[in-house]
Design a protein that fits this description.
single chain; alpha+beta; Thiol Ester Dehydrase, Chain A; seven-stranded antiparallel beta sheet
Length: 137
């Protein structure tokens, strides 16, 4: 398992949605991305519970960073073409953690799974498919 410096990923996200929402990369390798955020009022829905979009941001960004660092040689980038999330619980305070792992690392697509947890309990299961983007001929 190759471990990568997270400083470059933090710098890359400066000024973007993950940065604004406090996305923090804990560790990054070609086999696993660990990330999270501390729950703040802007992560909550009007009902006082964690907003689903906050969870999606965490899971999708974690999987996206995984895709970014495992792109096939010569590929330009990627884009999410499908995502699904099952919400199993919620939180109001504390930290939300995510572990993303690759399921399929192909030449044209990648599939990533993520498990999101809070206070040691799984609160969401997430899967996304990324389309690998290549230079135009």
């Amino acid at each position: 398992m190759t471990t990568l410096p997270t400083k470059q990923l933090h710098e890359r996200q400066r000024g973007t949605l993950p940065d604004l929402l406090g996305f923090d990369i804990v560790s990054a390798s070609t086999q696993e991305i660990k990330a999270g955020f501390d729950i703040k009022p802007h992560h909550l829905a009007p009902n006082g519970y964690l907003h689903a979009a906050s969870i999606i941001m965490l899971a999708d960004t974690s999987c996206g960073y995984g895709c970014m660092i495992t792109l096939p040689e010569g590929a330009n980038s990627f884009t999410t073409i499908e995502l699904k999330s099952n919400f199993l619980g919620t939180a109001r305070e504390g930290k939300v953690d995510c572990i993303a792992t690759p399921v399929h690392l192909g030449r044209t697509t990648q599939v990533w799974d993520a498990t999101v947890s809070a206070a040691g309990k799984t609160i969401a299961l997430f899967r996304c498919t990324q389309m690998v983007l290549w230079p135009k001929a």
